[in-house]
Amino acid sequence: MRRSKDNFKNVPLISVMRLKFSFKVQLVLITLINLLQASFTGLLKDEAYYAYFAKNMQWGYFDHPPFVALLALPSSIEGLGLFGVRILSVLSVSLSYWLLYQTLSKETKERMSNGLFSLLLLGLPLVNLYGFLTLPDTGTLLFTALFFYAYKQFLSKTKYAVFTLGLAMAGLMYSKYTGILIIIGVIASNPALIRDSSVWKSVALSLLLFCPHLLWLSQNEWVTLRFHFSERPNHAYEFLPFTGGFFLNAIAIIGFFFYDFYRTLFSTTTRNPFEKGLRFTVWAVLVFFFFSSFSKKSQLQWLLPMVYPLLLIFIERPLSLPEIRRIKKLGLVSIVLLFSLRFLMAFEQLSPIHLEPHGVKEWSQKISTKANGKPVLFIDSYQRAALYEFYSRQIGLSYNTLDYRPNQYDFDKRWSSINQDSVFVISSKPNDFEQRVDSPKKGDLFWSTTTYLDLILPDEVAIDSTLIRFEKPLLGRLYLAELDKFRRVQTIHLLKVEENNTASIAVTNLAYPFYRIGISSPGLPPRIIHKFAQPSRL
């Protein structure tokens, strides 16, 4: 006689997919695999940029808060190489797995097989890949797990929960500013927290820990916040990359589990304040980035803060045997695909397709040979500059022109030390360059030249909305770039200023309310000489 589907409800998961190894042993194995992967896989472009951050540790950077630089800090130890960039990230993500497991209720642990929990973790696309990569969202995973672990302890009045919660909130903000969505979601789910003095102790501690970054921001004109919220280049709204992209990313971030996870989110009744906090957090992230999608292109990793709370909501619900079987099949397919990708990333010679980490080391070595000891400038490519410097251990800088967005290289102190030097220049546009340079990616074209660097440096010019003042005689030609409302360069004008002129220059009659100022160097296009597109006062 066939059993009805309802008869499978609440079947103990211990009868399904029981592994001989405890979760602790599984976690050690996962960590070892990720450490091996970290050691044999070439850097992604963004990872190299964050390793560049770590060479000059600060309380903030142009693009990001500083936690990602801390993760990459061991890369500055000679000989660690790739392992140094990623070791702390591997350990951080493994710690986040452990914290998630400890956050589960006792009942869930008793009925759930350890193997199913590991399968769910590794079957989530970005959670799997972030197991060995060093990116800003690595910190988001760690501190999201710590936050909900601490919040559950806080609700139970556990000792030290106030301290742990404060640490988690500070860590979320040090990783990415969107960590505030997790905090807001939990507070919105439980307004009584606002009247709890212990909550304010946690908030005070988090603000105290976050003060060094706030001080850095105030000393640097709130550069990171201004970039992300008003100065980031964009373009006019299109449904597919904007709002359509948001919906696609909301599915892709969960992978093959999206149906089961979202069905749980919509269908299950909230049982307690902790689960309510999880649900509000997921909705806070989804709603915020849905409305954000009408002004910015959606990016997959932006939705990562909701993945752990959504996982906890799903796994705490009793599952039927058919659901378990489906999850097992989907998880195994996802893991096979993800680890196949990871294998191809690590072993270029066996990969039928070209992936981002492939060929970069050899490309860097070829450029280093051609440069013959000269500093290498990459026109409008902070990622390639970082990759080159990581693999060659030679000076590589991004020369940011008026058409490009500002980045951390505008703050680099080495411009002063190499000014007036002969430099080797790499560009994706031919300009007046003579030589072709091999690319790590087929189809990319690069040219190179050797020229003499002659720059006005940022600390030698003061710019406000109407006036430009030089601390030394102007050596090159001065340019003004008009920007549209999306901060994209529309036209570039040569300002009529005589060389060797030290007087202040009035900037008037601008066609657009935002502009950038640039100055030329012999043989090079105009370079940005300030941090932002400045608003005019017309």
Helices, strands, pairings?
Blueprint: H1 23-40, H2 45-54, H3 67-71, H4 81-103, H5 106-111, H6 114-123, H7 125-129, H8 136-155, H9 161-175, H10 180-189, H11 197-219, H12 223-231, H13 240-252, H14 258-267, H15 273-292, H16 307-315, H17 321-346, H18 360-371, E1 376-379, H19 382-392, E2 396-399, H20 414-418, E3 422-427, E4 435-437, E5 446-452, E6 461-463, E7 467-470, E8 478-483, E9 489-494, E10 505-506, E11 514-521, E12 524-528, E13 534-535
Parallel strand pairs: 1-2, 1-3
Antiparallel strand pairs: 3-5, 4-5, 6-7, 7-10, 8-9, 8-11, 11-12, 11-13
Helix pairs in contact: 1-4, 2-19, 4-8, 6-17, 8-9, 9-11, 10-15, 13-15, 14-16, 15-16, 18-19
Essential attributes:
13 strands; 5-stranded antiparallel beta sheet; 5-stranded mixed beta sheet; 3 domains; single chain; alpha+beta; 48% helix
Strand order of the largest sheet: 2-1-3-5-4
What amount of the residues lies in strands?
Answer: 5-15%
Class by helix and strand content?
A: alpha+beta
Largest sheet: 5 strands, mixed
Number of domains: 3
Strand element count: 13
Helix content range: 40-55%
Q: What is the radius of gyration computed over CA atoms, rounded to a whole number of angstroms?
A: 26 Å
Mean pLDDT: 89
Cα(first) to Cα(last) distance is 83 Å
Shape: globular
Q: Catalogue the unreliable spans.
A: 1-17
**Total of DSSP H or I helical runs spanning 4+ residues:** 20
